């Protein structure tokens, strides 16, 4: 199957597909192994549980966003840096292409996955990004626009799923809307 990381990525991709098709709770490791064409023992070498698979996906997404937060740490919230933050954020969540599936999975399986997502500091990270995008003391409407600018990067693919647009076109449209919300 190639290198260990390639195999882990294939397992993650197939697991996301099956979780999306059948739901998280209704998908077994055996089914994931069968879809991959490997034994359950081979799958166990990489992941012992489906919780480990989801956790690895959430951690990878969190690590990409941590890099964005690190970039932001020594920057002033100028209009140019706010735009750069949105662009970096969009690139981080779109890297690898599985973000839409992961977001849908988290939305559709909230009770089963809530505890796994807890503790990954997503809330604190999001608060820091939003604070960077809006001036202190900004109007409530401007505070909302800053939050929506980030949210649209996540939700744009959902909102445009009925269109014939490509994934890249949907991502570009979401970024354009996000830019507009922060006045860029």
UniProtKB/TrEMBL annotation:
Pfam families attached to this UniProt entry: TetR_N
Domain HTH tetR-type, chain residue ranges per copy: 5-65
Domain of life of the source: Bacteria
Keywords from the UniProt entry: DNA-binding, Transcription, Transcription regulation
Any GO molecular function: DNA-binding transcription factor activity
DNA-binding region location: 28-47
Segments traversing the membrane: none
Gene3D superfamilies: Tetracycline Repressor, domain 2 (1.10.357.10)
Protein name: TetR/AcrR family transcriptional regulator
Organism of origin: Kibdelosporangium aridum
Organism ancestry: Bacteria, Bacillati, Actinomycetota, Actinomycetes, Pseudonocardiales
């Amino acid at each position: 199957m190639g290198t260990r990381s390639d195999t882990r990525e294939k397992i993650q991709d197939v697991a996301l597909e099956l979780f999306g098709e059948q739901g998280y709770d209704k998908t077994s490791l055996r089914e994931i192994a069968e879809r991959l064409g490997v034994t359950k023992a081979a799958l166990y070498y990489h992941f012992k549980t489906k919780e480990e698979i989801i956790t690895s996906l959430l951690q990878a997404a969190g690590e990409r966003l941590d890099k964005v937060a690190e970039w932001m740490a020594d920057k002033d919230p100028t209009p140019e840096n706010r735009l750069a933050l949105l662009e970096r954020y969009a690139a981080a969540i779109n890297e690898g292409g599985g973000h839409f599936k992961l977001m849908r999975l988290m939305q559709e399986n909230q009770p089963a996955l809530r505890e796994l997502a807890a503790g990954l500091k997503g809330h604190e990270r999001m608060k820091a990004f939003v604070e960077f995008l809006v001036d202190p003391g900004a109007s409530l409407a401007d505070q909302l626009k800053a939050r929506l600018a980030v949210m649209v990067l996540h939700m744009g693919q959902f909102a445009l799923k009925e269109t014939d647009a490509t994934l890249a076109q949907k991502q570009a449209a979401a970024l354009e809307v996000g830019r507009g919300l922060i006045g860029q």
